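Dear Dr. H.,

I hope your travels went smoothly. While you were away I took the liberty of generating a structure for the chain from your last submission, since the lab meeting agenda had it listed for discussion. I wanted you to have the full record in hand beforehand rather than looking at slides cold. The sequence, exactly as received, is reproduced here:
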Amino acid sequence: MVSWKQRNSSRKRSKRRSSNRRFANLQRIDILRISFIGVGVIIGIRLFNVQVLQHGDYEKLASASHQLYEELVPERGEIYVQDKYSDDGLYVIATNKTLAEVHAEPIHISDPEDTAEKLAPLLNIPKDDLFERLNKPEDPDEILKRRVPEEVVEAIERLELPGIKFRQEDWRYYSEAETTAHITGYYGYSEDDRKGQYGIEGYFEEDLRGEAGFLRGEKDAFGRFLTIGDSLIDEAIDGNDYILTVDKNVQFQACNSLEAAVTKYGAKGGTVIIMHPDTGAILALCNAPSYDPNRYNEVEEIEVFKNSAISDVYEPGSVMKTMTMAAGIDLGVISADSTYVDEGVVNIAGYPIRNSDGKAHGLQDMTFVLSESLNTGTIHIVQQTGNESFLYYLKAFGFGSATNIELSGEQIGDLSGVEQLRDIYSATASYGQGLTVTPLQLTAAYAAIANDGTLMKPYIIDKEILPNGEVLATEPEVVTQVIRPDTAKVVGAMLVNVIDSGHAKKAALPGYFMAGKTGTAQLVNENGVYDASRHNDTFIGYGPITDPQFVMLTHLKEPANVPWSADSAAPLWGEIAQYLVNYYQIKPDRE
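The corresponding predicted structure, in token form, is as follows:
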């Protein structure tokens, strides 16, 4: 029998257990409640972070899943030259082509030797070279050749070779290659970016490139653009087209003749520039050696990219005597008939200066000075003009300043010696030593004499065509009136005598009065002494004298097997001039 005390104790224990259970239940509920609150707080924080703090990022991700973004690439502008034989009078020398890149996936090529044997004749790559590039079992991609024409791609496709693939690439194509390389420059890689380099391509890079566009629109589950729904298009703006003043046929003839002359006379290079004297328009401009801008990456010497016509600075030699003569006549201190006594040597500041032939010619007039190219005669002229006036005329003719032609890389030459206004520097400059000029500066200066003393700005852009079709034509620009028209006519007549009776007989054209001057500029050796065995040869002339239609410079660098420009640059000039009078059907002006 259970006693009261036991029953009471049992009831107390039962109450404690019940109380403990209720307390435990309350604890679990509180923990759950706290847990739910904690989870809710975490979810709230997460939602705030996603919906507020990272809203932009998630919007972009969501947008990317159903929107298409694409950059629209503009078409690069084209470059044209004149061509009277074409239907529209133009010929494109720089345009855009889509060509193929042939590449291999060696990991998928089971027989590299057979593949190499079949590809070698089509890609014009030695079989052994191809085999070496294809025999790489772990190589996923190997470029075999770029700029492969469509007909070659089709021939390769017919072979159905495993692991041989194609990619389409946009390339700049230069139809005249070496002939116009120094005019166009090239469009190619500079570090990781492609852009215009040298020539027109470099000078007008931004205008030729155009402006990229932008496309945003809806896309389906397969990533295809949908024509329905909202879309935003910022259209690409194509680059400007340029029509040059250069004549395709004259350019071709000039460059071919130059290349032949460089070979014939063993020269290191050369330049030809042909300009219209009345306007300053460039009809032809070429240098040798040249390069193929379609394969600019194969050039071994970076110097070949330089446009020597505007970038080379050199002592011009006796062609500068024409400017000295023009200054003296324009100032009235001499005339064509003025005389002086040539003793064969002039001593200035302790330096003896002699004629190139080493002779003394006695009493002579200025016409003889120019035709026989006497150093002592031009020194006599400078002594009459004075150093300041002589410097003024040099600068007025454009020396020491950029012509600002629309080509990249132009240099300005150096007149710093003459600018010191010392007798010795003016004396040597009078016959073309101690100062440097560019071939284009010389051409423009002679064009001023041909143009009644008016210096025109040289230009090579005839028209610029904007993407909207607007045409911007270049207007000839007068720089300055260097000498009086009557001075120009007197100097011109004296230059005719240089060809008829002087050193430049090999530049003569039967039936025409042509004006011109030779220049044989000795080069300085490392010891600072002029070396008669090394020289640059220049001839500049224009004609016909009654109505000049062209002015032309021919220049040969260090010809090896002729002593004077009269035997190298002058006959080259005569050859091209004969073509010009025939091509332009210029009427003879002498019987």
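Two observations you may find useful: The chain has a mean pLDDT of 89. Residues 261 and 572 are 7 Å apart (CA to CA).

With kind regards,
E. W.
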